[in-house]
Amino acid sequence: MKIRDMAEAASKASISLAAAGGEIKNGALAEIARALESSAAEIVRANKEDLDRSGRENLAGPLMKRLTFDEKKIREVIDGIRSLIALPDPVGKTQLATELDKGLELYRVSCPIGVIGIIFESRPDALVQISSLCLKSGNAALLKGGSEARETNAILAETIRAAGTRAGLPGGWLQLLETRADVGEMLKMDEYIDLIIPRGSNEFVRHIMDNSRIPVLGHADGICHCYVDARADIGLAVDVVVDSKTQYVAVCNAAETLLVHSSIAPEFLPAVKKALESKKVSLVGCEKTGEIIDVAAASEEDWKTEYLDYRLSIKVVESLDEAIDHINRYGSGHTDAIITTDKPSAARFMDLVDSGNVFWNCSTRFSDGFRYGFGAEVGISTNKIHARGPVGLDGLLIYKYKLAGSGQIVADYAEGRKKFTHRPLSGEFKI
Amino acid sequence: MKIRDMAEAASKASISLAAAGGEIKNGALAEIARALESSAAEIVRANKEDLDRSGRENLAGPLMKRLTFDEKKIREVIDGIRSLIALPDPVGKTQLATELDKGLELYRVSCPIGVIGIIFESRPDALVQISSLCLKSGNAALLKGGSEARETNAILAETIRAAGTRAGLPGGWLQLLETRADVGEMLKMDEYIDLIIPRGSNEFVRHIMDNSRIPVLGHADGICHCYVDARADIGLAVDVVVDSKTQYVAVCNAAETLLVHSSIAPEFLPAVKKALESKKVSLVGCEKTGEIIDVAAASEEDWKTEYLDYRLSIKVVESLDEAIDHINRYGSGHTDAIITTDKPSAARFMDLVDSGNVFWNCSTRFSDGFRYGFGAEVGISTNKIHARGPVGLDGLLIYKYKLAGSGQIVADYAEGRKKFTHRPLSGEFKI
Q1: Which of B237, B292, B295 shows the shortest CA–CA distance to B266?
Q2: B-contacting residues of A 231-260, CB under 8 Å?
Q3: Are the beta carbons of B410 and A240 separated by less than 8 Å?
């Protein structure tokens, strides 16, 4: 099937999916959970093929781990689907209701965006998670997974698609793309696809962003900072920096650069060096850092680099504002933390750092939809419109205005025969 | 000054403007209102230069009217600024507050988007309106007006910029671009500009959308429909269709196509023809329409055309679903109305028509921020993300997450030593 035909079918399906009630969508989610349960053995077998082949092709260890989709992972994604069923239907919620005039009532009602294109690298759990989020929010989905997981993705997508269709979803609601060339085609389908969500490495996401006119929800880089202010508790600062850097180095919300106020640097830098080196973190630093502790010299390039590794760049700054300027210049607008006992400094930092997540006295690693209590996570966005920071189901929704009248025409208001009342209404839209 | 330098200056200014309190912004708005008042004579004189030159260049009558910026218009924009001052500060509102754990509190707080690029054709009032909306919402603005209004725009922008700066706004908060080539440059500044709002003809807006990677808020086409269902009050349907088509033909929310159910067409079409022809509307229709009333034949092209003129295309459909499919295929997702006495038909139409505004028994012309009671209007959006339909101040805002802790690290939660509470909090964020 051509990608254009697939995208058109998704667009058609999205119309009736948008109007499907919560019961139909929850019924389909339940059917999908059951189908995954009863196909578990087959899924594990398909995954073993992917693992065997990738093993022969010498896929790196961490990627092999991400590719693994065993009984335990299957149970986890099924639990995820069941907790999604328990959430209220996010579609059809009245967000605003105004009487424009007697018998002329305006409602702003949440609705799905339409068709979501999802592109992800190795992890097959992402396929299950994001397609169930799309379904819960009434969106049609086009999926493309990494080729190393092709057998696992094929059986997962087919199991989910068939179960959903059995439960009454419109044909075309979920479709799997097969080749890398298909992705290129999909990125051109701005007529039918409303939003692209890419999950994977930063080069991969940047490639998507640079090659489509369709809006992209996500982040390319996660260049996160910890700034240790002039007045800070040394022990607390060391703990937060070590956690931000090392709790899981390969993720977007791990810290890459440490900024330290010059007045606390002589005391703080030796302490943090010791703690980081015990975790095998290699350090690079600016000239002033090098005057206090023994580190390799950082280059301009270091401030722009997302290491995703046991490596940290350090810069000594003369003021809070220098730290803020550095972050706004070199950061990626993802997550940045200040460690300080001074409240006005914390407030200024959180107001002036232009990032989706600004933290005070805690680890950058908290920047995550599950930790924020969203239950489900679509991804983390560094966009400045629509959705920013960790994105839950909300990010898959937009709204439409429904205006119910009784024959009103604008001429009566334009010519002064009638006047708008603009009175707030209570209650949900219903006919 | 190079456009890149202007955009960088705007980006820098946007950081402190984002943190400016409501009093500073309102103080600047008041100073701008006073400055416009005291410069009124100069502004009118500059506008007269534009009008004289455009008259010599034979600018069309309606455009001359849009270009006119007299004492009355000045009073109107000043009134607009004063009503904006009366609105609460939209920045810094807590949208969500959750205790993640004891002493670890998450707040989602509204904030400006950053730098807005605004491009508008002839009307100088748009310059004042949108720059004051940007200021109220804490955004920096780069403006480009139509060359026919260059003298008026220059004095307006300089008056506003100088008044704002006098009132304490950061330099670079408002800048006026001068040439058409500047616009091309501006569209490339995705590093510094977060959102483009184009106001003008549909060709103009489409050009902008096709030539920038910066998100665009607005609409290219307004191909709006009225659908007269099988069961409809003929008199009411005629009134609504006539108002939708003729109350103001040159605007995006005027109807361009009339769809009529075949069972009511023999009675309805002659009645609406008579009413429309008395307003000098010329009609084109499908074959079935032509069997009932005397009209020129419509071509495929007619269904895709925004006439913005006294012209209407008519199609007879066999069912509600055929009407919905036609609208979703040929419409522009702007505003579409059903006229019916049948509630389930109205509900189905409003659920399945994928447009920002779906109306029942009222004119498409109500689709407007002022009529919706928003007070101020940024524009009307056919986007499927961020903001849809008429957009008020909200469309110029996004949010950031502020997380205030007391030394928490993720390792404690990942390793089971601590548990998240995820308890809703009441109250605004404050340090």
Answers
A1: B292
A2: 233, 236, 239-240, 242-243, 247-248
A3: no
Collapse the DSSP code of B100 into the 3-class scheme (helix H, G, I; strand E, B; otherwise coil) and give the result. Answer: strand
- Greatest alpha-carbon pair distance for chain A in Å reads 81
| Rounded Cα–Cα distance for residues B209 and B212 (Å) | 6
Note the CATH number of domain B3-92+110-217+378-396: 3.40.605.10
Q: Which residue of B has its CA nearest to A104?
A: B362
Can you read off the two tokens belonging to residue B218? 């607005």
- Whether B75 has its CB under 8 Å from any CB of chain A: the answer is no
DSSP state letters, B341-377: S-HHHHHHHHHHS-SSEEEEEE-GGG-STTTTT-SS-
More confident residue, B362 or A206: B362
Residue found under tokens 């890419």:
A198
And the tokens for A243? 């956690």
Cβ-based contacts of B248 with chain A (< 8 Å): 410
Percent of chain B past pLDDT 90, that is, above it, reads 87
The CATH number corresponding to B224-366 among 3.40.1260.20, 3.40.309.10, 3.30.160.250, 1.10.274.10 equals: 3.40.309.10
Place of tokens 């997508």: A157
Q: Does domain A3-90+110-217+378-395 have CATH number 3.40.605.10?
A: yes
Question: So what's the pLDDT on residue A103?
Answer: 97
**Partners of A262 in beta bridges:** none
Beta-carbon count within 10 A of B69 CB: 28
Assign residue A425 a region (left: φ > 0; alpha: ψ between -120 and 50; beta: otherwise): beta
Residue identified by tokens 């009342």 is A421
DSSP state of B299: -
CA pair distance B125, B178, nearest whole angstrom: 17
- Could you state, in order of their start, the residue ranges of all structural domains in chain A? 3-90+110-217+378-395, 224-366
Distances, alpha carbon A214 to alpha carbons A190, A203, A210, B424, in Å: 5, 18, 10, 35
Mean residue pLDDT across chain A: 95
* Residue B92: count of CB within 10 angstroms of its CB: 17
Q: Is B412 helix (H, G, I), strand (E, B) or coil?
A: helix
Q: Look up the ipTM and state it.
A: 0.95
- CB of B98 within 8 Å of any CB in chain A? yes
User: At residue B362, does pLDDT exceed 80?
Assistant: yes
Contact A113, A194 (CB under 8 A): yes
Please give the average per-residue pLDDT across A291-317, as a whole number.
97
State the Cα–Cα distance between residues B77 and B73, nearest whole angstrom.
Answer: 6
CB contact under 8 A, B398 and A411: no
- Best to test chain A binding among B196, B244, B372, B422 (most A CBs inside 10 Å): B372
**What confidence tier does B365 reach under pLDDT thresholds 50, 70, 90?**
very high
Say how many CB pairs under 8 Å bridge A and B: 233
CB atoms within 10 A of CB B45: 13
Q: Is B3 exposed, middle or buried (0-12, 13-18, 19+ CB in 10 A)?
A: buried
Q: Confirm or reject contact between A360 and chain B (CB < 8 A).
A: yes
**3 state DSSP class of A114:** coil
3-state secondary structure of A242: helix
**CB contact (8 A) between residue A15 and residue B357:** no
Q: Is residue A405 scored above 80 in pLDDT? A: yes
Q: Do A243 and B113 touch (CB under 8 A)?
A: no
- Residue pair A221/A214 in contact (Cβ under 8 Å)? The answer is no
The pair of structure tokens assigned to A418 is 């009638």
- Which distant-in-sequence residues (6+ apart) come within 8 Å of A344 by Cβ? B431
Distance of CA A206 to the CA centre of its chain: 14
Nearest CA in chain B to A366: B410
Element (H, E) at B30: helix B22-38
Six token digits for residue A221: 């880089």
Return the biggest CA–CA distance within chain B: 81
**Mutate: best of A116, A410, A422, partner B, most B CBs <10 A:** A410
